[in-house]
Write a structure and sequence with these properties.
The chain is of the alpha/beta class. The protein is built from eleven helices and eight strands. The protein is globular and about 45 Å long. The relative contact order is 0.13. Bound molecules: 3-methyl-2-oxobutanoic acid (KIV).
Length: 274
């Protein structure tokens, strides 16, 4: 029993309690996406705190232009691959497009990500309409990350990959949604592509850890798509991406540089913010 706690006593697994303590202590949470076991081993060795098996795999692994085509079976497959490679990081898996249309279906798919995929938390792109789903999952003791701001699964409806919350009304709505999702039981809130000032406000208002991507330097943690920060992705990259391969000898060193830059608050710099 509890054998995972004995695997390496000097590097105990990151849990929600660890992340809560990091927020309380002002220690930044370094997070990255991952899709396979080989990168998972590297991320673990680099001391990344949180690993997300993101449905961004639809774009960086499968070559689609959005995350919409990603299926539940594909998410389970990639989560299981990553779970075999990580020991210390807290592991989150994305619920893909239309896998949480109702509370019951969301529960069924969350159970699959946990039991077959081996993740510790599920993430769903959330707004006001998802609070009852978050509440239902939390009521079944499933750890939930609520993804707020730019929601890539909704790009066909919202008109593209755009910064959210620039106007006063939308900023107020996003803050209110984040509050409601926390009250509903979300254990982490992830903010994507919002002004740095809003990222700061939401992080200060919420009690749970807030992890940002393109949400400024004042969130409790940062996350990037690993293929972006290792400069594997070709073409134009979002403003918030920094190339950590520059000056690094190999992938592991680049990953360690990222963790250090997040912890020491060197990343994100003003040029990475909206
Ligand atoms: O799918 C993903 O990789 C994500 C990150 C961009 C946060 O949701």
């Amino acid at each position: 029993m509890y054998t995972h706690l004995q695997r390496d006593a000097t590097r105990p697994p990151v849990t929600l309690s660890t992340l809560a303590r990091m927020k309380a202590d002002g220690e930044k949470i370094a997070s990255l996406t991952c899709y396979d076991a080989s990168f998972a081993v590297l991320l673990d060795a680099a001391d990344v705190d949180v690993v997300l098996v993101g449905d961004s795999l639809g774009m960086v692994i499968q070559g689609h232009s959005t995350t919409v085509p990603v299926t539940m079976d594909q998410m389970v497959y990639h989560c299981a691959c990553v779970a075999r490679g990580v020991h210390r990081p807290f592991l989150i898996g994305d619920l893909p497009f239309m896998s949480y249309p109702s509370r019951e279906v969301a529960l069924e798919h969350s159970v699959r990500l946990m039991q077959e995929g081996g993740v510790q938390m599920v993430k769903l792109e959330s707004g006001g309409k998802q609070t009852d789903i978050v509440e239902f999952l939390a009521g079944h003791d499933i750890a939930v990350c609520a993804h707020v701001g730019l929601k890539p699964q909704s790009v066909h409806k919202t008109g593209g990959f755009r910064v959210q919350g620039r106007e006063r009304e939308t900023a107020a709505r996003l803050l209110e949604e984040a509050r409601q999702l926390e009250s509903a039981g979300a254990d982490i809130v992830l903010l994507e592509c919002i002004p740095a000032s809003l990222g700061k406000t939401i992080s200060a208002e919420l009690h749970v850890p807030v992890i940002g991507i393109g949400a400024g330097p004042d969130t409790d943690g940062q996350i990037l798509v690993t293929y972006d920060m290792l400069d594997i992705t070709t073409g134009r990259k979002p403003r918030f991406v920094r190339n950590f391969m520059e000056g690094a000898g190999d992938n592991l060193e680049a990953l360690k540089r990222y963790v250090r830059a997040v912890k020491q608050r060197e990343y994100p710099a003003p040029e990475h913010c909206f």
